[in-house]
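As noted in the main text, all predictions were made from sequence alone. Below is one such record, for Delta-aminolevulinic acid dehydratase.
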Amino acid sequence: MTYPHTRLRRARATAWSRALHRETLLTPADLIWPLFVTEGEGVEEPIGSLPGVSRWSVDGIVARAKEAVELGIPCLALFPNTQPERRSDDGREALNPDNLMCRALRAVRDACGDGVGLLTDVALDPYTAHGQDGLVDANGYVINDETVEVLVGQSLNQARAGADIIAPSDMMDGRIAAIREALEGEGYANVQIMSYAAKYASAFYGPFRDAVGSTGLLKGDKKTYQMDPANTEEALREVELDIAEGADSVMVKPGLPYLDIVRRVKEAFEVPVFAYQVSGEYAMIEAAAAAGAGDRDALVLETLLAFKRAGCSGVLTYHAPLAARLLRG
Ligand code: PBG
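Prediction:
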């Protein structure tokens, strides 16, 4: 049957009918809130390239965690801004049980118990003097197997401090199996792994590198380990390997420009898929809103809904607190 009997606008005519026909639901429970930790007490440092986002000292992170609980945001993702004097070529600060990340984990756990999930990024870039995610050889090449050994130590360090979800973002080969084995070996059977399985060498990470203080340090790029933005099949192979190695869930990153990857991964594997709406995407929305090119609240909710529609179980987004407030009305 076609027009005039079929009129798709009929279902769109009223708000109640649109609500009834809605296929996708976005709620605060879909959000993971990335937060940047810095040294000190009572410190809030606004990040110039991420308007509206700050680095917080540990006490501020605890306050944000309580805010997340109130807003119904189930999980935080923590990233440290390591002091320059604690950065080294081998990134050994990542293994320090009293590093900024571990102190933040313990403080949030003390304050919130199991009320909020704690996801930790595994990669050495916040700790290395050269800004790369792993150990480098004399030519500046990031060496895989030696790096994996350090990442295993970093993961155990985070698990001991209370991390619930270990999220390796380094793109080394074989790291998921190595980390899973080490976690099992130390009795962390219930610590999850969310693998940054399809992480692209993207131009959208600029403000993040400001936020963790690695902008001036990084020489060159990350193209020998992060994926070529031109590739899709390779993403499926990455996801397949990470699932086989023991990942509980996988991530696609960046987000909006890679929704085709989300969809393909979701169709190919029965596994929870998350996406990271990264710093450059956040900055674009903020810039558009500031320029009067769009309504911030509407842009935020529409983009986040798009992740759900594409097949995501949830989204890491710096807009998490704003979105949760809007969704709660
Ligand atoms: C660290 C890491 C990065 C991001 C998350 N984890 C930066 C990078 O790979 O250079 C980017 C997140 C963002 O841009 O919001 N490996």
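The longest strand covers residues 192-199. Residues 121, 123, 125, 133, 169, 205, 208-209, 222, 278-279 surround PBG (CB under 6 Å). These features were considered when defining construct boundaries for the mutagenesis experiments described in Section 2.9.
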